[in-house]
Every structure is written in structure tokens, then in C-alpha cells.
Amino acid sequence: MLHHVPNSLPVHCVTTATRLAAVTSRPNEDQKRIRKKLNPVKMCADLSRTPRNLLVCERSSFLDEKNRLSFQVEQLRFNYKVSLLLPECGSAPSHLESTLNSFSRFYLVKKLPIYELLDKDFLQNAVYQGSVYGLSFGTRIDEDNCVALMPNGRLVLSLDKDSYEMLGFEGRPSRFNHRTCSRFVVPVDLKERSMAPGSPGYRRLLRALSSHLKLQTDFLISHHPGGGASLKALLSRYDWSERRPEVCSRRLSDLVCPDLRSCDPHSLLEWLGAADADVSCENSSSSFLSTLTCPEPTTTLAAALSASVSGLLLPQDVQRLVEQLRCHLQQEQTASWASVTVHGFADGPVSWGDEEHGVLTGGENFYNLLMFQDHTYRLHLATGPQDGCPP
Amino acid sequence: HVVQKLIESMPGRIAEVLKKRAQHSTKFTEAYLKNCIQQPTRLDVKNIVTHKAVILGYSRPKKDKTKRNSKKAKGLSARQKRTMKVFRIKPEHQRYELFLPLHKLWGQYIIDLCGGLKPTSLCGETLILQLITCVLIVTVVRSKCPSYVGTTGILIQEFKHVFKIITKEDKVKVIPKKNSVFSVEIEGFVSHIYGNKFELRSSERSAKKFKVKGTIDL
């Protein structure tokens, strides 16, 4: 079972007394793109400081040539789950179904020694081509040692104090250490000249990983379509299994839905999470399980489709899905909007780009794209306490 | 002289007896009086002069210090040591192969001393600590500074805060003891030395008992 990532923002984020909003806008002739950074700080009598969550909201249009959506989608490299919500849709349309089923396959390698990632052939065929995504599986970012291999040739090791002291390779303390340095990050750029095979830096790292600290974890590895052959040599030496991303879909009936254009971001995300988790927003007086309500003003949808894909998903596949959804919105007249939520791994060493990621109270790093028929969209990017700012 | 007149008038034999008695009594009187008067011994000049030596003045003969010091080894002051560079090993002596036989010899000593160094032997940690003075192969296992980790070599000199190690490539490396953990292998037994607790001169260490105080965390 892969990591479970909570689908909705934590509730404390919603009930806030004050909000600090920094608004920067670049007016365009056609469209206005407003970017809001909301940093809710809970002012409570008994808590002086609570860990912050960061939510970045953006409104733009696909027709605007300055929109950065593709860049932003590309930056979240390790995606765990993609969930869709389509209104007025009984079952998945065929082209969407085929897109969901055509997400790239990935491999799970048991007990891979990390020095194997420095193998010359592997570097030559896979890493230098820029087509490999790798993430350690079953390791918790705040307890164990985690490894991430990114397509730009960077290998990131997130180690605890004892492992770092034994490894003997230069790194830096984590940004999220409070007073004592208990976590260290070792970023290695494998494409740099100093790390070329045979160079002193390369030999030192190899020696460190193979004799000083014998790092060995389960590893999830994936590649761009067509690059499968490059991994074969590496995989053949160890116990590996090919996995397909899990697809599941559900039909929702009588779904209460808010006015999506005017709804405020927090309540919107809360509602989306409730819909995805199949939590009713009725808030009836007899039920004490949940007090979540749908933001006013509401409409009721007769039918809606909720689908999700989970596994080690590549940003290119997500991009393709977004394009397909745009086409679907243009073709179908009944559907006026579509929502896609993409979650990153809670236990990965990196979240967006090369930014360090950590888990304090929760390791959420996700974004939600709400698309409308007139080519406009709302994008919300959210991270947890131990994260940098999303792009 | 009334008595004398009486004695002269008496016949001859009685006068002789009275004269003897008079001589006798004077002798007795003298002796008796001497005994009565106490004579302190220090004023008894005759006794003093005949038996004892008299100190005429206070001057002790000077002890010959130089003679005594030549038996003790001369020490050098710190300044002299620095100028003479006694503790520097010259480059031509800095070769790994030269130290290897010494290392083997020391290993032999240890085996002889501990009788095989079995786990059950009474060779405790204190003994091992005293034996780790020099010429053992030392590796840095953990360190706060990553560049020290992995250096291996024969320990040639030990200072208060620093180990001097010669590696196989004939390079002398100076590794501070602080914030590092060293591992020493003696005949198959690997011991870890925590450098933070080891910052003593080796001469002091042989006398010191090690207590478990503080943390061994770096």
C-alpha cells in the first residue's frame, strides 16, 4: 500500500481569525492574473504559534500566453495521486478513460543499494538522458533516510544525523531544523563535471555509499515513455516488479455544489476534499460525524463523476490529462467546469522543483486546477509547514 | 689556736692521733661540701673541653648539585623543542612501509600481553586504552566534518588534541580528536574510540580512569 495522503486541507486552516494576504497583479489587456498568497495564522489564546500552511491562488486563462501552468505542472515531479471531479457526467467518457489508463507504468525494486544509482551504464543510458524519476519507498522523511533521483540529474539524500556523520560526503543541514541539527540534506548533481565517472568526487561518493554507509531502500523508479531499456540492466540485478497506476472511479448523485467562480479558496478546497472522500455536506443535526457544509450559494448536480489514479505518476501524463479535459470541456455542452487535484508524496525529500520538503504535522503538497468552459482556470497550490513556496 | 696550745701541751702520742683526725675531718668536709653544691654540666669546663667538639661558626659545606642531576634525564623547554623540531618527522622518514614493521611488532606485544585477546580474557578496556599509544591502524568512522570520514592509516604521533596519521599514499594527515570517532583494529577486535573523551596526553591517560560522563553523541 502506498502512502496515504490526506485529501483535504486540515480543518484548522479554515477557521482563522486573521489572514495576511499579499496581492500582486500584472494587468494584461485581455485577462487579469491575480496571484494571492494567503498565509493563515491562527491567533488563539493558548497557542502562540502554530505551524503555517501556505496556499497560493492563481486565476488565469489558457489563452493567455504568459500563463505558467505547464511550468507549474512540470515542477511537481513526484506525483502520488490525481483525482478528477466532473459534473453532469454519469460515466467516464471514452477518451478520458483511455487517458487515465495510459499513465506510465513504474517499477518497484526491493532493497536497492543506492550506490547502484551511480553505476556507469545507468548514468550513461538513463540519468544523462534526463528521463528517470526515482523515489525511495517505505521511508519516512522525518525518521529514516530518503532518496530522490530527479530527471535533471540531481540525486537528493535526506539523512538523519548519525547516517550523515557516517557517510562522509559534503552536505548541508536541513532548513527545517529547529535548534539542534537532526536532519541533513546531501544534494548531488550527477551531471556536473566534478561527478563524472572516474573523478575524485564520484569515487568518494561511491566509496561513501558502498562502504561507509550502506544505504539500501525499496525504490520506486519510472522513466519517460520509450526509455524503458535503460532501466533493464539495473533492474535485472535485483528483485523488481512492474506496477500499473491504480485507477478507480465512482459515480456521485445529488451532489451539492457551490458557485465555483466566486467561492473563497479555503472553503472551495474543503468542499472538493469532502466530495472526493465521499463525506456528505448536509450537516444534519442528527449526525455528529462531520460539520462540513457546502459554501453558499449552492446548486445541486444530478450526477457527477469522481475518478482517481494513484502510483508514481509523471508530470507529462498529468499534462496530457489536463489537455484532454480541456477538449472535453469544449465538446460537452453540459459540463461547465472540471476539477483536477494532484497530490505529491508526503514522504518525499523534494516537493516543487528542488525545494526541500519535510513533514511536521502533515506532509501535504498538492495543487488543484479548476477549469471552466471559457478557457479560464483557477489554480491553488498548497504546501505544509516544512516546505518552500510553490512556483 | 687555743686547741693548738692544748695539743702542744699534751704528751707526744695523743698529739699524733689528734693531728690525723684533723686531717681526716678536713678531707671529709671538703668532699661533703662538693656534693652539696650542684654543678651544672655546661659549666663543667673540663668535661666539655675533653669530650665534645666546639662549633666555632655556622657554615655548612655546599652540596654538589651538578653531580646529582646528571643521573636524571634532561628535559627541554617548549621553546627549545620548537626550535629543535624534535617532534617533526622529516619527509624522507614519512613512508608507510617504514611504519608497517613497527605496527606488526606492537601487535605482537599486545598479543603476548593479553594472551590471545579472547573475548573472555581479562584484558579490560583500561588496558586497551593504555595500549593505544601509537603505531596502530586507525580509521575515522564518524565525524562531524564529512571530509575526515574514511581516512585510514598508521598512527605515528599523538598530541593533546590531534592524531597524526600516515596513509598508504605516504601522506601525513592531521586529524583533530574532537567530534570524531576512530576505530582501531587489534587482531580482529575492533574498538571505537570517541575522540571527544580522549583529549589527554598519552602519559596522563595511562594513569587516568575513564568515567562515563556526558554523551557520546557528536
What does this structure look like?
The complex is a heterodimer of chains A (391) and B (218). Chain A is an alpha+beta fold and 391 residues long. Chain A contains eight helices and 17 strands. In chain A, strands 1-2-3-17-16-15-4-14-13 form a nine-stranded antiparallel beta sheet, with helices on both faces. An eight-stranded antiparallel beta sheet of chain A has the order 9-10-8-7-6-11-5-12. In chain A, strand 1 and strand 2 form a beta hairpin. In chain A, helix 1 runs antiparallel to helix 8. Chain B folds into two domains: 1-36; 90-207, Ribonuclease P/MRP, subunit p29 (SH3 type barrels). Helices cover 38% and strands 17% of the residues of chain B. Chain B is built from eight helices and six strands; from the N terminus they run H-H-H-H-H-H-H-E-E-E-E-E-E-H. A six-stranded antiparallel beta sheet of chain B has the order 4-3-2-1-5-6, covered by helices on one side. At the A-B interface, helix 4 and helix 5 of A face strand 1 of B.
The oligomeric state is heterodimer
Number of domains of chain A: 2
Strand content of chain A: 35-45%
Distance between the termini of chain A: 30 Å
Output mean pLDDT of chain A: 83
CATH topology of the largest domain in chain B: SH3 type barrels
Q: Which runs of chain A of at least 5 residues are low in confidence (pLDDT < 50)?
A: 1-46
β-sheet strand percentage of chain B? 15-25%
Element order, helices and strands of chain B? HHHHHHHEEEEEEH
Q: Strand order within the widest sheet of chain B? A: 4-3-2-1-5-6
Assign the CATH architecture of the largest domain in chain B. Roll
| Major sheet strand order of chain A | 1-2-3-17-16-15-4-14-13
Rg from alpha-carbon coordinates of chain A:
22 Å
Q: Can you write the helix and strand succession of chain A as a string?
A: EEEHEHEHEEEHEEHEHEEHEHEEE
The separation of the N and C termini of chain B measures: 121 Å
User: Structural class of the secondary elements of chain B?
Assistant: alpha+beta
Question: What is the 3D form of chain A?
Answer: globular
User: What is the share of helical residues of chain B?
Assistant: 25-40%
* Helicity range of chain A: 10-25%
**Rg calculated over all Cα atoms of chain B:** 44 Å
Q: Helix segment count of chain A? A: 8
Keywords (chain B): Nucleus, Phosphoprotein, tRNA processing
Function (chain B): Component of ribonuclease P, a ribonucleoprotein complex that generates mature tRNA molecules by cleaving their 5'-ends.
InterPro entries (chain B): RNase_P/MRP_Rpp29-subunit, RNase_P/MRP_Rpp29_sf, Rof/RNase_P-like, Rpp29/RNP1
Protein name (chain B): Ribonuclease P protein subunit p29
